[in-house]
Specification:
By secondary structure, the protein is mainly α. The chain has a single domain (2-124), classed as Leucine-rich Repeat Variant (Alpha Horseshoe), CATH 1.25.10. 66% of the residues lie in helices and 0% in strands. The chain contains 9 helices and no strands. Helix 2 (13-26) packs parallel to helix 5 (54-68), helix 5 (54-68) packs parallel to helix 8 and helix 7 packs antiparallel against helix 8. The protein starts with a helix and ends in a 6-residue tail after the last helix. 34% of the residues are buried.
Length: 125
């Protein structure tokens, strides 16, 4: 997992996409999802939400949903990342993106709105 996270930080565009997809698959396993190392993936995955490529956004959303859905502490960590994931999600929801991508963006919004920090942000309205 550490190598995949390193690729998210430093890899090429296709490398980041492959790493995000692999992490999404790994996050199906509870012991991996709950590991300390998984927290290191939050910032680079959140950064991928700002890419122009829907496939990169889709991979990042899938991984973030799996990582944060049943873990309020990790969802709260998204409030601390550089940039604002809610702005990225708002852009996806208001774009001409595919329905699948918008559905995943809405699902991550649902997870994030479980945290009062996100509900209090001006962009939330």
């Amino acid at each position: 997992m550490n190598q995949l996270i390193a690729v998210l930080h430093l890899g090429s565009r296709s490398g980041r996409l492959s790493a995000a997809r692999a992490l999404s698959e790994l996050f199906d396993a509870e012991n991996i999802r709950d590991s300390e190392a998984s927290m290191q993936a939050i910032q680079p995955l959140a950064d991928m939400l700002n890419t122009a490529s829907e496939s990169e956004q889709q991979a990042a959303l899938s991984a973030l949903i799996k990582l944060t859905s049943e873990n309020n502490a990790k969802a709260a960590m998204l409030a601390e990342v550089k940039g604002n994931p809610l702005e990225s999600l708002c852009k996806i929801l208001s774009s001409s993106a595919t329905l699948e991508l918008k559905s995943d963006a809405a699902e991550l919004c649902y997870v994030l709105f479980g945290n009062s920090k996100f509900r209090e942000m001006p962009i939330a309205s």
